[in-house]
Amino acid sequence: MARQFQIYGIGAALVDMEFPVDDSFLSRHRIAKGHMTLVEEDRLEALLSELEEPPRRASGGSAANTIYAAQAMGARTFYSCKVAGDPTGAYFIEALNRIGATTNPHPEDAPGISGRCLVLVTPDAERSMNTYLGISAELSRAEVNEQALRDAELLYVEGYLASSPSGRDAAMHCRELATEAGLRTSITLSDPAMVQHFRSELESMLGNGVDNLFCNEEEALNWARTDRLDIALNELQDIGRNLYVTLGAQGSMVVTADGRTSVPGFQVKALDTNGAGDIYAGACMYGWFAGMPPAMAARLGNFAAARLVTRYGARLPDPAEYKALLKDFRQLPH
């Protein structure tokens, strides 16, 4: 009998506020280019006061973007997160409900402030993120729906949870439950800053290893403390039985028990790389459930990421565009 959900995800609930800036803005405010930096609310508000035009606003959060993509393509998903009973939280949950993703209950009178992420996009399409987690930092086991998790086929965890003690505990709890219930386990390293500053916490979340590990090239190299990708892949295989490493415009590398496969990317003019890794992971996981072998799922991931980076924002603006993306992908020569 088929399980109710194909993917159970857990991660932060954030609403992105995206602004175009130049490199001088990053330098002036000492913002690490291309990385995610955790900030307090006063720092976020100070940066916002320096930006005049209205932001492009969209629901975000790394694993949430991934779950959104997989659900919009046709997967059955559940997402555990934490928001406050404020307009920001309502905006976030409504976006998931609109595409049919299931999530844990969120009372309208829940206290606190929902998380926000200031995404600064430079002309080279790099995104630099300043994240105020708000109530999302208090994500805990209380937000885990154990019944839904046991009724899923795959667990997906975002590495950003390593920065929160309660979030990390929830992620570890999910991984233990998933292992007991026979689910496949997947995790993403999320950001070079997480590897640099929260390595031991990530190691505790990874435990004895996971079935699928997602990361980008910089995260892989940082993890292995090397400048050679082949060495990094060897080390990462100790923690991920299957590796999906994104390489930007060059595509991605897939490593399984059958060997290593370089999967070429699709050449496009990138406007904004925010969310590229997230949609890649969502497309890959949808591909697995659609019966695609690893390299084909990665090719779909590359195609989805290439489509996304030609737009602004971490998600495609209309849910129907994910189905259109799939249709276009199936028409490609394979």
Give me a quick take on this structure.
The protein has helices spanning about 25-30, 40-50, 60-75, 85-100, 145-150, 165-180, 190-195, 200-205, 215-225, 230-235, 275-290, 295-310, 320-330; strands at about 5-10, 15-20, 35-40, 55-60, 75-80, 100-105, 115-120, 125-130, 155-160, 185-190, 210-215, 240-245, 250-255, 260-265. With about 325 residues, the protein is of the alpha/beta class.
How is this structure best described in words?
There is one protein chain. The protein has 334 residues and is α/β, with parallel strands linked by helices. It has one domain: Ribokinase (UDP-N-acetylmuramoyl-L-alanine:D-glutamate ligase), CATH 3.40.1190.20. It has helices spanning 23-28, 41-49, 62-73, 87-98, 146-150, 165-181, 192-197, 199-206, 217-224, 229-236, 276-289, 294-308, 320-330, and strands spanning 7-10, 14-20, 36-38, 56-60, 77-80, 102-103, 115-121, 127-132, 154-158, 184-188, 210-216, 240-246, 252-256, 259-263. The strands form two sheets. Strands 6-5-1-9-10-11-12-13-14 form a nine-stranded mixed sheet, with helices on both faces. Strands 3-8-7-2-4 form a five-stranded mixed sheet. Helix 6 (165-181) links the parallel strand 9 (154-158) and strand 10. 51% of the residues are buried.
List the helices and strands and how they pair.
Layout: E1 7-10, E2 14-20, H1 23-28, E3 36-38, H2 41-49, E4 56-60, H3 62-73, E5 77-80, H4 87-98, E6 102-103, E7 115-121, E8 127-132, H5 146-150, E9 154-158, H6 165-181, E10 184-188, H7 192-197, H8 199-206, E11 210-216, H9 217-224, H10 229-236, E12 240-246, E13 252-256, E14 259-263, H11 276-289, H12 294-308, H13 320-330
Parallel strand pairs: 1-5, 1-9, 2-7, 3-8, 5-6, 9-10, 10-11, 11-12
Antiparallel strand pairs: 2-4, 7-8, 12-13, 13-14
